[in-house]
From TrEMBL:
It comes from the Eukaryota. This is RWD domain-containing protein 4 isoform 1. Residues 131-167 are annotated as: Disordered. It comes from Daubentonia madagascariensis. Residues 155-166 have a biased composition (Basic and acidic residues).
Length: 188
């Protein structure tokens, strides 16, 4: 069988095996993601496997660069990738995507034994929670309408016509005063 025929058979098998599995995601016909662990599990991680043109005769590309993995230290990621790479070498020449996902699921605890969440993510969530109340209070201030007293309303009504618009020339005195100030500076 050619590499393409092997890939088509494996693709069909993966689709039938993982049908309805929320952890599995087909990014393209040659690229797949699998979440090892449940949602909310601090030791959960995401593996992405992409097939090369000559897969399964050549190793697939295994990545842990997904945003989901940003709390995992690079040392732990490298350790997981190294262990998966060993499994790739053992299974080279055969369909191995399912095998790699299952190997990762079976060894999740061993893979993540040295995992300590990276502080950048927790500090980022702290920053978000600190900023959230500030933005909420400023939006409350904007929602509150300005309350005018009866005297202020009467004064405003006297200045405006029946449409609520100010009469033409209401600020001419201010404009003339402004021009006289700026014009005198030019004369100096």
């Amino acid at each position: 069988m050619s590499a393409n025929e092997d890939q088509e058979l494996e693709l069909e098998a993966l689709r039938s095996i993982y049908e309805g599995d929320e952890s599995f995601r087909e990014l393209s016909p040659v690229s797949f993601q699998y979440r090892i662990g449940e949602n909310g599990d601090p030791k959960a991680f995401l593996i992405e496997i992409s097939w090369t043109e000559t897969y399964p005769q050549t190793p697939p590309i295994i990545s842990m660069n997904a945003f989901f993995n940003n709390t995992i230290s690079s040392a732990v990621k490298q350790s997981i990738l190294a262990k998966l790479q060993e499994a790739v070498e053992v299974n080279l020449g055969t369909a191995m995507t399912y095998t790699l996902f299952e190997y990762a699921k079976d060894n999740k605890e061993q893979f993540m034994e040295n995992h300590h969440p990276v502080n950048s993510a927790t500090s980022m969530s702290n920053m978000i929670s600190v900023e959230t109340p500030n933005t909420a209070s400023s939006s409350k201030k904007k929602d509150k309408k300005e309350q005018l007293s009866k005297a202020q309303k009467r004064k405003l009504a006297d200045k405006t016509d029946h449409k609520g618009e100010l009469p033409r020339g209401w600020n001419w005195v201010d404009v003339v005063k402004h021009l006289s100030k700026t014009g005198s500076k030019d004369d100096e």
